[in-house]
Amino acid sequence: MFFKRAIRQKGLIVSLLIVVGLVCGSFLVSMLGLMHPLDIDLRESSKAPSAQHVFGTDSYGRDLFARVVYGVRLSSLAAILVTIIASVLGGVVGMIAGFRGGVLDEVLSRGIDIMMAFPPLLLAIALLASMGAGFDSLVTALSIVYIPRIARVTRSAAKSIASEDFITAASAQGAGFVRTLLWHVLPGVFPILLTQATVYMAQVMVWEGALSFLGLGIPQPIPSLGNILAEGRGYLRVAPWISIFPGFTITILVLSINIIGDTALDLVDPRMKGVMK
Hints:
The structure is a single chain. This protein has helices at residues 2-6, 10-32, 64-100, 102-116, 120-131, 135-162, 165-172, 177-213, 225-232, 241-268, 272-276. The chain is mainly α. The chain has one domain (80-276): MetI-like fold. Helix 8 packs parallel to helix 9 (225-232) and helix 8 packs antiparallel against helix 10.
């Protein structure tokens, strides 16, 4: 029923095609080595888009199309890893807190509240300042930012499921805590967890771009959409394409992922939108 309703959503299908095309295309181009984003040719510095350089070149003569393609790969990889890590850890914490209840729920819930009291960007900046810039640090910092957010929504769903009759019946038949959690609570939480992860993936991509733009994420010369934008801000008058193309790519990716997440959330449970904001 879910898939029958999903294929009727034209916006969802178009957005899926855009995201899959951009992300899979970037990985395919990178694996085949069809172009290199670090090749410098100062004679081609700041060239406008042409047949030879579709997106033009940057201040070092590097092909901007190659850098944007590799930037999509790295930015999307960071967003995917953060979403998976935060969903797994946040999902486990949220399910345990919501299903177990009692003192454990109170302790975990207060920990979630404390972490969510910090503005996400400031918390990520503070973590990166202590760990240093880099891909691993960026993924770790953003995962820590999103774990409590995912845990909060998962806890709410698990708490609702814990009061259902089939949970009582499973306990009466001797099902243990772990078995009940995996076989009865997880199937009910998983659709919400999946759609929630899709919504947050778009946010993670924006934060990755913002942190790399500030010089706290993926450092130059390794290309990410954020640091390509940062490089282009000094050439907005003489070579605006250095910022236009990565900025447009981020916009298209984030918009498409948001449409996918919002549509999936409407199909699963539109009431969860208020909880996730």
